[in-house]
Amino acid sequence: MRTPGRAELPCLCSGVAVRRGVSLRGGAAALAVVLAVLLTGCGGGAGASAKTSASSAPADAGTRAAAAAKQLATNSVIPLKGEPPTPELPVTVDSSDGRKVTVTDASRILPLNGGVAEIVFTLGLGDRVVGRDITATFAEAEKLPLVTKAHDVSAESVLSLKPTVVLADTDTGPSEAIDQIRASGTPVVVLDPAGKLADVSTRTTRVAEALGVPEAGRALNERITGQLAEARAAVPKGSRPKVAFLYMRGTAAVYLIGGKGSGGDSLLEAAGAVDAGKESGLDRPFTPITSEALVTAEPDVILMMSKGLDSVGGTDGLLAIPGISQTPAGADRRVVALEDGVLLSFGPRTPLVIDILVDRIHRT
């Protein structure tokens, strides 16, 4: 069974959905404090510290999750504080397609991946971005010209925008389009896809270096590292729930359970949980769901993308799928759903995802 590619995962970054009567805990004052920390406290401009104010009391998981959900609902990125960085060019960087690429001008940037676009905007270079692909759905990018048809890049659309540098993934295609863009003389820097939490810092560093703003990249990584540490600190001691990450598209009869390398396993580990599929011996990223596999996995909680849950008719429809209701998660209706474009984005907003998971999956 082939792992669903990034191009197959719809990216709608409008917020967070949590099923089964989840409430946003914490008082308004506490929520305001935590939201301020999430927006500005964990790193600013180049060289800023990732530490929060010493006067800010640690927030409980529920309050942090409420603030994270509020921020994600804005569908906006959070740029580094301070003045936007000025690219220092030219630079020559390694491209993941085996080439060395020299970038001499970053005045017209075209990221061909939503996660990469998010990094560019968060670094403070959003005003230099001239177009987007279909996966860049956050508010700052949504009005930019679209250069993809379905998930395929249109070389003609890209070249019409006269980019001075193009940022792509190894799975960006078709390859003929990338070759055509490169043949025009436009520098094309290819990056490895981000599939786990550890890839966030690597990808941020590579994007920042390719655009001539390595110091801003270090500042962003400091901010992300600090936010992740704070999210993990809210994990209840002794709590290790088993969580099954399910990928479903009911209209296409796609019903998969995540295992090793799904991306969900990395997020769940960071949130203090056990990936039920991986724990049960599933050594592929995704495996077709069977009743036997679900019984073996025995999840306490089910994690899904919100569009996937909607595609099977919500929680009631999910429980009608053979084997789901026989799991502890199904019996207790413990289903957590996060927006498709945010859950596996592995970018600057991933710490907000961890904040929400820490709260939702550890509830009893």
Question: Which terms would index this structure?
Answer:
3-stranded parallel β-sheet; alpha/beta; membrane; transmembrane helix; Rossmann fold; ABC_transptr_periplasmic_BD; 364 residues; 14 strands; 7-stranded mixed β-sheet; 2 domains
Quick synopsis:
38% of the residues lie in helices and 15% in strands. With 364 residues, it is α/β, with parallel strands linked by helices.
Characterise this structure.
The protein is an alpha/beta fold and 364 residues long. It folds into 2 domains: 1-78 and 235-364, Rossmann fold, CATH 3.40.50; 91-212, Rossmann fold (3-Layer(aba) Sandwich). The protein is built from 15 helices and 14 strands. The chain has helices at residues 28-41, 61-73, 114-125, 155-160, 175-183, 199-210, 214-233, 264-270, 276-279, 291-297, 306-311, 314-319, 328-332, 340-343, 350-361; strands at residues 16-18, 91-94, 100-103, 109-111, 148-149, 152-153, 165-169, 188-191, 242-249, 254-258, 274-275, 286-288, 301-305, 335-338. The radius of gyration is 20 Å and the shape is globular. The two termini are 34 Å apart. Belongs to the bacterial solute-binding protein 8 family. Keywords: Membrane, Transmembrane, Transmembrane helix.
